[in-house]
Amino acid sequence: MFLFPYKVDRPFRIPWITIGLIVANITVFVLAVSNGLDRTIATFGFRPNAAGAVTWLSSMFIHADPFGHLLGNMYFLWLFGSVVEDAIGRLRYLMLYFLGGLGAAFVHAVFVLTLMPAGRDIPMVGASGAIAAIMGVFAVCLYRSKVRFVWGFLYRFGTAAMPSPVAIGLWGARELMYSALAVGTAGGGTANWAHVGGLAAGIAMALLSGTVRSATAAYMAEDASQYVASGAHEVAVGMYDKLTTQDPTNPAWRLQHARELAQLHTPQPGKAAVEYRAALELLVRNGQLIEAHDIADEAARVLGGLGIDPQTLVAIAGAAESSKNLSAAEKLYREAASCDRACAALERARFRLAHVLLALGRAEDARGEWQRFVEAYPASDFIAFGDRALQTQ
């Protein structure tokens, strides 16, 4: 039976980390060949019975031949690494790649020293342990994705697809079988125990690091979006309840939760306002002020306003002013300035309101607002700057 994977049914953006790893592996191979491949493997390959911390990492970038080893590993790295990088993020992907490679080397060392002692002096090289870890992450995190492959049996060939856990599980079972068959031998050839160790390390790290939980939440968010599109708002609300409980710092989920609460057959404006306000405050905290302004405008249309605190209003108004949406900025500054609570944001709101009115060409209104500002804050540090700006009009 012949099986060769050629595609994963999941789109991805440009996988810069994966590309960088492939370039690094190819570059190291070229350098290794130019300096003597056998000597490089002997020096930088990982030996279970040898000291030298550097070989734990260096062995991941060295390959024994350009085609079956280097090209094969880089093909699998591209096939699975590109989608995993996009799904879990570059930094986490890179961390799991290297930790998986270290885990693969550790498992290889343990089993060689205990079950295959005759192979303790044989250096292990290649990125396959780290790639196996990424395949493990792929199987448990992107469990809805399918792997497409070409198959051959006797004289028949075709293509088929299977879920990622099944595809990776079959590959892992094969590696485990080959590992068991190698027990008691001198080893050499393919380091199957490293593949098994890398796969197990990837699965374990994905579970322990919360990567699986995040991936499951992402799938739930996709399902919720489909329910939104079909008009099943009650079901969508239930899903966003779970999502926002799991991650209350996700502004996109808080916003969509608010929208669905407002769309229910029996709307829940109070709860919707809480979610709108939470999404808005998260965006302001993240510096996404233009998006925050859009949400405030949407909430005003849907709910008639949110009762946002003056400091947040001033931040959003500043974003509107910077984007030349002066009418919105005026409205927001006025709302902030009308608050009956004393705070520093009120001073800035009235100061900026005068300048927005000037920019709108309403000089008389601006002077009136400026006069009220000076009377309210006679010791303000803004006066010198504002006074000059107003005098030029």
Molecular structure report:
It is a single chain. This protein has helices spanning 16-35, 37-44, 54-58, 66-88, 90-115, 128-141, 164-181, 192-208, 211-230, 233-246, 251-263, 269-285, 289-303, 310-322, 326-337, 344-359, 363-376, 383-391; strands at residues 2-8, 146-153, 156-163. It has 393 residues and is mainly alpha-helical. It has a three-stranded antiparallel β-sheet with strand order 1-2-3. The N and C termini lie far apart (84 Å). It is built from 18 helices and three strands.
Structural key phrases:
Serine Threonine Protein Phosphatase 5, Tetratricopeptide repeat, Rhomboid-like fold, 70% helix, 393 residues, mainly alpha
CATH topology of the largest domain: Rhomboid-like fold
| Number of helical regions | 18
Unreliable runs: none
Strand order of the largest sheet: 1-2-3
Q: By CATH's scheme, which homologous superfamily of the largest domain applies?
A: Rhomboid-like
From the 3D coordinates, which CATH architecture of the largest domain would you assign?
Up-down Bundle
Biggest sheet statistics: 3 strands, antiparallel
